[in-house]
């Protein structure tokens, strides 16, 4: 598996070990991350007692994923605009570090053949999603690009990692996380943690003027897990978020969800990703997402959102394999666009009915009392 380092935000091939932290109560273990090809002094250690919330545990899990696979010359045609990849960038000679990027453009060239083997000569313009080159463009050859693998389901995780995460979750739950008073204190601690340069959120979470923002997504597949949404966003945009899914009525064929972000940069990136007309997010059954609202979230809403998110998260049904991005120009995109337009018309109709309801309610309430 690979791990995104806290020190330089790059991805590395790693193995893990667990060890005691000397704490007899709570989570008395540490997770030691050992980097392949590096000496022990480069190890990074996560102490279980530093994971104060489910959010911290989720952030840690998102730093691990299956090894990215080197693209072969014959797979050149599979690299297209909008594809998320993991690619090498060398700031200095003999210093290759891997970061996630989005393919911004492709310059196709005729391939060469040497000794009967095909060699790709195309160029790929990448927009870096994190790390020191975040937001900049650079040109890369196929030999520097790897295919990102989908996140693993819980039962497919490395047993040591799964055990450590499970132990951390149990500790969080046992420390009164669900108590409303404790929740308020925990939110303050997480805001402080997000601003700390030594925290696990370094480079990922920057406060939006003290007020988190929420993006409402309609037309989700019924039964989708909030963790599926979080993993999907991390897979494509390389930052963590919080998510929850509201219950649906029996006759409704879809669900509604919300994505919560504390970082202005990440909020803008996700908004642009969801609004990009060049692609559509769909479920494995072809149901397209529709972003219907972006709104600030104040303290009065936070407790309800957090409680429901954690409750619904336990009903996990799969991984982000349940979701995918379809690109403009494909048959899947054409079908998804028709379905998205159809649902948008439904949403607009419902909105007009709500407006009419408000008017009619106001009219009835203002009627004079009968004598």
UniProtKB/TrEMBL annotation:
InterPro entries on file: SAWADEE_dom
Domain of life: Eukaryota
GO molecular function: chromatin binding
Domain SAWADEE residues, every copy: 1-146
Protein name: SAWADEE domain-containing protein
């Amino acid at each position: 598996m690979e791990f995104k380092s806290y020190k330089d935000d790059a991805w590395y091939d790693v193995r893990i070990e667990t060890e005691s932290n000397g704490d007899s109560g709570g989570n008395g273990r540490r997770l030691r991350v050992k980097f392949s090809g590096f000496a022990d002094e480069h190890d990074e250690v996560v102490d279980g007692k530093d994971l104060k919330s489910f959010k911290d545990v989720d952030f840690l899990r998102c730093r691990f994923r299956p090894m990215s696979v080197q693209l072969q010359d014959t797979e050149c045609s599979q690299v297209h605009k909008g594809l998320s990849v993991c690619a090498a960038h060398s700031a200095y000679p003999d210093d290759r570090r891997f970061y996630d990027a989005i393919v911004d453009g492709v310059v196709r060239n005729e391939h060469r053949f040497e000794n009967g083997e095909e060699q790709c000569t195309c160029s790929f313009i990448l927009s870096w999603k994190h790390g020191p080159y975040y937001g900049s463009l650079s040109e890369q050859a196929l030999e520097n690009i790897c295919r990102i693998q989908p996140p693993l389901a819980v039962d497919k995780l490395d047993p040591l990692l799964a055990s450590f995460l499970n132990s951390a979750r149990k500790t969080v739950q046992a420390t009164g996380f669900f108590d409303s008073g404790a929740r308020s204190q925990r939110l303050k601690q997480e805001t402080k943690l997000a601003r700390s340069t030594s925290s696990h959120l370094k480079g990922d979470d920057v406060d939006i003027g003290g007020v988190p923002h929420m993006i409402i997504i309609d037309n989700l597949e019924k039964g989708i897990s909030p963790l599926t949404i979080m993993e999907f966003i991390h897979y494509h945009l390389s930052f963590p978020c919080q998510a929850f899914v509201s219950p649906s009525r029996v006759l409704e064929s879809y669900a509604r969800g919300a994505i919560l972000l504390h970082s202005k940069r990440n909020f803008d990136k996700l908004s642009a990703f969801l609004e990009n007309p060049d692609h559509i997010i769909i479920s494995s059954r072809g149901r397209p997402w529709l972003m219907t609202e972006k709104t600030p979230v104040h303290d009065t809403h936070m407790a309800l959102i957090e409680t429901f998110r954690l409750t619904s998260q336990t009903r996990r049904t799969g991984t982000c394999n349940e979701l995918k991005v379809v690109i403009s120009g494909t048959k899947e995109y054409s079908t998804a666009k028709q379905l998205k337009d159809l649902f948008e018309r439904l949403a607009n109709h419902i909105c007009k009915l709500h407006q009419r309801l408000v008017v009619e309610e106001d009219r009835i309430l203002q009627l004079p009392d009968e004598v």
